[in-house]
Amino acid sequence: MGDIGANLETARLLEGYERPLIRNAWYCAAWSHEVTQEMFPRRILNMPIVLYRTEAGKAVALLDICPHKLAPMSQGKKVGDNLQCGYHGLEFDCSGACVRNPQGDGRIPQEAKLRSFPLLERYGVLWIWTGDPARADESKIIDLRHFEDPAWRTIKGGHHVDCNYMLLVENLLDLGHALFLHKTSGGISDDLVLSETSIEQEGDMLRDLRLYRDARPPATIFGKYAPKGVRLDYNADMLWVAPSMLMSHNGCSETGRARDGSGLSLRGTHLLTPETQHTMHYFYGTSRNYALDDPEIDEAYRRFQRDALKAEDSRVSEAIDGLLGQTMALGVRMVTLSTDVSGRRVNRMLDRMAEAER
Amino acid sequence: MGDIGANLETARLLEGYERPLIRNAWYCAAWSHEVTQEMFPRRILNMPIVLYRTEAGKAVALLDICPHKLAPMSQGKKVGDNLQCGYHGLEFDCSGACVRNPQGDGRIPQEAKLRSFPLLERYGVLWIWTGDPARADESKIIDLRHFEDPAWRTIKGGHHVDCNYMLLVENLLDLGHALFLHKTSGGISDDLVLSETSIEQEGDMLRDLRLYRDARPPATIFGKYAPKGVRLDYNADMLWVAPSMLMSHNGCSETGRARDGSGLSLRGTHLLTPETQHTMHYFYGTSRNYALDDPEIDEAYRRFQRDALKAEDSRVSEAIDGLLGQTMALGVRMVTLSTDVSGRRVNRMLDRMAEAER
Amino acid sequence: MGDIGANLETARLLEGYERPLIRNAWYCAAWSHEVTQEMFPRRILNMPIVLYRTEAGKAVALLDICPHKLAPMSQGKKVGDNLQCGYHGLEFDCSGACVRNPQGDGRIPQEAKLRSFPLLERYGVLWIWTGDPARADESKIIDLRHFEDPAWRTIKGGHHVDCNYMLLVENLLDLGHALFLHKTSGGISDDLVLSETSIEQEGDMLRDLRLYRDARPPATIFGKYAPKGVRLDYNADMLWVAPSMLMSHNGCSETGRARDGSGLSLRGTHLLTPETQHTMHYFYGTSRNYALDDPEIDEAYRRFQRDALKAEDSRVSEAIDGLLGQTMALGVRMVTLSTDVSGRRVNRMLDRMAEAER
């Protein structure tokens, strides 16, 4: 594929054409700890949704709109495991069925129900399936066992970003940006030079593998625990699972033994949930297999999440989002670099998924 | 009429189609006391209007736009009973005619005038007619004589709401919402069960009559003055006069003598004035024929206006307004209840009025 | 030309039709002193632009969008005279050429460049040409030599206005508004009566000349330095150079010797730069040839800029901008006065220029 083709393709995706939202997919609706028996409203893929737990602790996701007069259910109240609309009192059970009409003749219209969403609790995440319930396939959820493995310690966080979710997918698929955007926040030295890179595609997944031989890992990656006085192979890999679950792996080992699992390991989990076409919820976890009890390292990763993931990535992504659709008018001819291969492939895969949904 | 028809009709009205604004109608432009000789700008039915009084005290309503360069007249100044544009000094009398051009050759262009609106002061309300002046019929103004009758005491209020005015018309036409939305603010007991209901339609008016036999009226209605130790018939009726004047009547009498006028009576006046398609001015008065000099009752009604009419009704109506036009995309199939009859009829009547205006 | 024709024409321009933005023109991008070696982002004619100076002091204007991922260059950093994108590190020189790609294979895509704008520094103003560079003609820049002439003292200022720039062009082309809008801020007496007026058109320029014989100039014009006890000819002229450079000249001389250059002189410079269709940057300077060292006069002109140019002109122009496109719906029939001739002509000239650009 020639460069011009690639340029045009990228331009087409960015230029005014809205990036597609994929419905038939699992998204992180919330961290498990965010949702209690209290109603918790959150907009996901343009749908107002109310999350809550039953008295038995099961998490539930219902459309947050009463079908009578469109009042938000989350402005009403819980009655046992049911939701009572705060406007006229229609009551719905946790399957979304209307079970009480306290008005007039008390008859319950057959169509009266709240759409219910498949919701799965796994790894401390509430996963919501926003498409056809018949197609909700649990095996498609990313493997986050390290979130619950005592051999690992995870620092979780999250924030809201005013951009299309694909801008952050592309951001994560090219970690080369860290050398500039996160140079200070990430403590990255100038002498970090990529040795090998490869891309593996398999079904709805893509792996972007980067290896730095004989390298010094960025200061924030392993901090004071980074092995000293030895030559290291340092890998910074990214796994993408469609449409917007990503997991980075930073590891080190003695030179010549790249990815042998022997050294320190850092796993970054990035769960991107579109809120609307131009806003998103960003959930992330930073997991390490070393220094589990060192609060100083906890704080270092919290700081990195705050400075790099929140401040820096949001700032640039929100600025870019504001320019989507203006490039043609501005006469900007976009270019792609060799490092954009993963991003381009992922865009094409999502285009095909969106096409299949239409 | 079958339920499916009713559902579709309601959905059609709510779904993306803008609720009509009726031009040939009287609206409350302001309370009398709001308007002095100072210019008072207010947007009504999408029109910027300036209200003021002449030195003789007559209230005037003119379009708040100078036809020369479109400057708001209300940014200029009063010169006697005239308005002088603050930009280039064109002067208009209180009929809207241009009477002075201080620029250049001083000639007054024949077309130079401000649109003048029929404005009637009655019952302490400034009523504006926003349509064809030839059709302004004073007999269509709702009867609010109790506002000025010494046998009654009225607490007035008002606020701005970010919703289409029809959402509050429907709100008022189904007082059943009070049992849920205003349960606390209205002090409504659970044992209030509707005995009889009827709807009377007559010209541009509709009456929704609700009777509770052997009942205890809500605590806020008559407060400590509610008759004790006797069995009561309690009525909660609503009169709607097209397009958006409403008057509630809450009364009580000995059981079996419903609406005989013998007991305590509470009249709620609700004047809804569209500002734009999705914002409105809400004017209300709560009038009672008892305990005229008890400041504690004054304060109780002020609290009810603040908590119920302002906080609760606005919150739910503004949330609903934000969802108008999204229900189809969200796959919401709306339902109607037996208590929605008045609302459906009023929507149909307004549709016909709007059709006639087109 | 009949009045109806004139009315229709003005209405057509104001009514819903967006006033044209002229691309092939010089605009004030910034005062010279605003731009240092630090990057200075400013949106001009809907284009995000970054201004900065090289180490040698030459001012540069580049499109503030990296062609790789659309990140704003101004969020990156300076590397010598080059700009380095803060996202992935692409580096561009001050001609806009990409000179370094630190990612992947390091190859620089041929198309990778930032659009560069002709930028000229003259009279303490950075002039940007926003259209076809081949047509950038320096001779079209307004003569502001008095900004640098020691015989004159200039007070400069500027602010941002939320209106289409043409509203301020029309404002300045009819100084008659000062008698009303700036009556207090400008200290204008009621007895100021126009004696002679004429309009001269020449190429892309228009002169609107106004003479007051035997007059007392407005208090703010010459302040306590105004000649006393003599009869004066006072002129208040405006020169417009397409599309939005304007210069006023207020002068006085002994009666019968109008514009002989003998008396006090005040030059007002007004540089209007569209930011978007409905916002603009307003740069102004007030220059006098008298009382050069009197700080009280400095302060008087600063006050006039703040009260008249900023507060009064902005307030009315922003209100008018909000009504553009609504007049037809509101049934406003616009009128023109004899003093609107310059404004009408300038609108027609700009229409022709815009037509030629399409």
Task: Write a short abstract of this structure.
Three copies of one chain form a homotrimer. Helices cover 22% and strands 31% of the residues of chain A. With 358 residues, chain A is α+β, with helices and mostly antiparallel strands.
What does this structure look like?
Three copies of one chain form a homotrimer. With 358 residues, the first copy, chain A, is of the alpha+beta class. Chain A has two domains: 26-138, Rieske Iron-sulfur Protein, CATH 2.102.10; 152-357, Alpha-Beta Complex (Naphthalene 1,2-dioxygenase Alpha Subunit, Chain A, domain 1). Chain A has seven helices and 17 strands. Chain A is globular. The two termini of chain A are 27 Å apart. The model of chain A is unreliable at 1-9 (pLDDT under 50). Chains A and B meet through loops of A and helix 1, helix 3, helix 5 and helix 6 of B.
The low-confidence runs of chain A, each spanning 5 or more residues with pLDDT under 50, are: 1-9
Helix content of chain A: 10-25%
The backbone outline of chain A, from C-alpha atoms, is: globular
Task: Say which CATH homologous superfamily of the largest domain in chain A is assigned.
Answer: Naphthalene 1,2-dioxygenase Alpha Subunit, Chain A, domain 1
- Return the average pLDDT of chain A rounded to an integer: 91
Looking at this protein, list some descriptive labels.
alpha+beta; Rieske Iron-sulfur Protein; Naphthalene 1,2-dioxygenase Alpha Subunit, Chain A, domain 1; seven-stranded antiparallel β-sheet; 22% helix; globular
